[in-house]
Amino acid sequence: MMYTAPMASIKTIWDFQSKCHEGVPILMFHKVGRCPAAANMPRMYVSPAHLNKLMDLFHRKALRSISISDALEGNTRRKNCFVISFDDAYEGALIHALPIMKKHGFSAIVFIVADLLGQRNNWCHGEDTTMEPLMTRTQVEEWLSAGFEIGAHTLTHPRLTSIPLLKAKNEIAGSKRKLEDLFGVPVRHFAYPWGDYNSAVMDLVEEAGFRTACSCDPGVVTNGVNRFRLPRFDTDERSVRSFSTYKLAYLSDDFKNLAARGMRAAGSSLEAARLKFLTW
Ligand SMILES: [Zn+2]
Asked: What pTM did the predictor assign?
């Protein structure tokens, strides 16, 4: 997607573990589900199968998911902890990701576009060939009753630095008010649509009563981090696949898939080379 900020992703489990020692990494997911062949933004997707493998790996490495509030708490550096976040509140986060996270004892926050419950990511209209359904009010209630957290992602997903300040104020404060009224829980955390912010927008988030705001800037949460510019790591299918512990399993899966598609070694050498590159 056309984020204004450059995004970083974590490529290997060793890389991830070292980030968990430097501070607390916040992972950012968008769509969870099988990526349709027609998708022109495949980076937005993570498949449930690969998400499950990733969570399983984190679990086996004794890594723990914590809330954003916990990541910021206290003076001691939190080791082996990370935060899971989902932007936009696609229903795949509830249907596919929530059971996987629960199974591994993990939790997450979902950042909701407050005026678009039950609709699609229509802010990408004309850009995204596979717009996906967003959670309905009932689905958000299910998310909350599972003990998971919600945060705000404006009312309509605008680029906050490109609209008049008064409008930005309404998008930010309005989304907090609306979600708190609808769901009766405090909404403490915000995420900038498109990772787009400036100091005026950061001030509006603070004035609205939020405790933190997530950006798409690279980095980990450490003591002294600016609470209204929390860094995050993008997590798409390709980066999840490249977690090297699984490279053999993935290679064998990939070749099975190639065989199923009837691709012979001669014709598929380029594809095989590409897959090999991806999986290493
Ligand atoms: Zn978004």
From this structure: 0.84
255 alpha carbon to ligand 1 midpoint, in Å?
34
Q: How far is the CA of 254 from the centre of ligand 1 (A)?
A: 31
What are the tens digits of pLDDT across the range 8-62? 777 778 888 889 999 999 999 999 999 899 898 888 899 999 899 899 989 999 9
Task: State whether 200 and 277 are in the same domain.
Answer: no
Q: What is the pLDDT of residues 131-164, one digit of tens each?
A: 999 999 999 999 999 999 999 999 999 999 999 9
Ligand 1 centroid – CA 257 distance (Å): 32
Give the CA distances from residue 134 to residues 13, 77, 91, 112, in Å, rounded to whole numbers and listed in that order.
30, 35, 5, 9
- 215 within 8 A of 229, measured Cβ to Cβ: yes
User: Into how many domains does the chain fold?
Assistant: 2
What spacing in Å lies between the alpha carbon of 182 and ligand 1's midpoint? 20
Give the distance (Å) from ligand 1 centre to CA of residue 174.
16
Task: Give me ligand 1 centre to Cα 11, in Å.
Answer: 22
Q: Which domain holds residue 248?
A: 244-280
How far does Cα 32 stand from its chain's mean position?
9
Contact status, residue 50 vs residue 241, Cβ threshold 8 Å? yes
Q: What is the DSSP string of 71-129?
A: HH-SSSPPPSEEEEEEEETBHHIIIIIHHHHHHTT---EEEE-GGGTTSB-GGGTTT-S
CA distance 59 to 134: 28
As given in the structure block, the two tokens for residue 252 are 């064998």
8 Å CB contact between 31 and 90: yes
Determine, yes or no, domain membership for 1: no
- Tell me, in angstroms, the distance from the centre of ligand 1 to residue 193's CA: 4
